[in-house]
Amino acid sequence: MPPRPKPGSKQDRDAVRSALLATNAPTSAIAAEMRVRFGVRPREAWRHAHGWTTQEAADRFNHLAGDAGPSADASLLGKWEKWPGPSGRRITPRVLIVLADLYGASVDDLLDLDDRQALPEADLRILCHHADAASSASVAIIPASPATPSAEPAAPLTGAALVQAAAQESAQWAQWAEVTNCGPVALEQFSADTQYFAAAYLMAEDPLRVFQQTKHLLNRVWDLLYGHQRPQQRQELFTTAGYLFAMLSWMTSDLGHRAQAETHARAALLCADNADDPGLHAWACSTRSKLAFWDGQFRQAVQHAQHGATFQAPGTVAVLLHCQLADAWAEAGARTQALTALGQAEDAAALDSSSTLHDQVGGLFSCPTGRHANYGAAVHLRAGSASEALAHADRGLAALQQQRVRAYGTEAQLHITRAGAHLLARDPEGVLDAIAPVLALPNEHRTAPVRRRLRDLARDTAASPMGDSAAGLRLQDAVEIAVREAARALSPATPTSAWINDHD
């Protein structure tokens, strides 16, 4: 078997194209020559026949498809050309029809055997109906390109012929509208997988694996959104995609890439707009509040949390938004506003517990008693109330013991807050007892926020009356060792480089 020819350089392709144009060869002949001479796939061959780069073809594609049609960039168009190869992106009938119009080809010209064997049966039926409509001179699904007008305009239909043509168009549209690329079972599975990852992330036994699985599921959902669904199915897909984008945003921030996390958060908000889902809107705002808080932008954290509360979403998101509001106000030094927001969180929690409403996803996208108490303990500690901080921390730890999913980050932070409360109360032995469970954690569970709060505790201890005492020095030494060992375990040399499991 002769070796497959390698794609030539752009200079080689342009030379072949110019030579064929000099002989008045049609575009179809140029595309055929590109396939034979350079071994490229059909869609790439037709693009080279026009002499366009992927960016030029993508720009023309977007112009032709219009605002209501599919859109592409150079990368996506290149992936359409490579599909069904491993680096390709599945192409939809609608995209194929626009490409055919763009290149002045038929849809059949843009497909080879590999494409046809990989396309779903439903997509092949749509393309077949489109080809039949085009061959019978009826109106196609996609209008003809102004750049490629017919040589002889068809005479306008009148009378019975016009009525018959209108009926054919309606039949073709109905055939297209009834076809969907997903069903109720797939939608239910996507929702179940999203709930699983949201819970698994809190446990953080293998955070990078959860990240990869979440990204893979999002890619599957997004591939479907490039296709056709019924309106309700499309809304559900956008809701699932929105929660997955929010999860990626949370995780990406925890990995230390906050600019990229903002990109995911904006995508989550866009999905919420398309899904018209107030719950997703609220959780996306909560995610953005979290990003701003850990970036030290406390006023922005307040604004995002306040905006999220305006959606009046069901479930516990209102509790978390008020907790985040209290946390941001406390860090900004606004004690009165922080305690007011904390009271609003208590009211929201009482309202939620008296209703039958539940969080749609749960896990990361929920605010149970343990998580709520963690915020309350931290706010009261900053406000200088040791007894209130201890009461909230003890309530949170008791609640965590009852949870099916163990949230290591929240649990560690509650223990550190308890130690801070004992420090505020000038109880050295209480500080050592409270911090012991955190120092006993495996290194992978002493994550960056935990280490940060441990360092804060050591700093506050050094500045306190017990700073030079035997207990104070013992605590500072233990914290230094714990932070150093955990940082070494999560160093960039390990597969879990710089993973930060910041859940709250």
Distance between the termini: 61 Å
CATH fold field value of the largest domain: Serine Threonine Protein Phosphatase 5, Tetratricopeptide repeat
Under the CATH scheme, the architecture of the largest domain is: Alpha Horseshoe
Name of the level-1 CATH class of the largest domain: Mainly Alpha
What is the C-alpha radius of gyration, as a whole number of Å?
A: 30 Å
Order of helices and strands: HHHHHHHHHHHHHHHHHHHHHHH
Within CATH, the superfamily of the largest domain carries the name: Tetratricopeptide repeat domain
Oligomer: single chain
Number of domains: 2
- Count up the helices: 23
- Write down the overall mean pLDDT: 84
Give a count of the beta strands, DSSP E runs of length 2 or more.
Answer: 0
Percent in strands:
under 5%
Biggest β-sheet: count, sense, barrel? Answer: none
Structural class: mainly alpha
Question: Which descriptor suits the 3D outline?
Answer: elongated
Determine the fraction of residues in helical runs and give it as a percent range: 55-70%
- Unreliable spans: 1-5, 136-153, 491-504
List the helices and strands and how they pair.
Elements lengths: L9 H13 L4 H12 L3 H9 L3 H12 L8 H9 L10 H11 L9 H6 L2 H15 L23 H19 L6 H20 L3 H19 L5 H24 L3 H18 L2 H17 L3 H12 L7 H15 L3 H19 L15 H14 L3 H17 L5 H17 L3 H12 L8 H15 L7 H20 L15
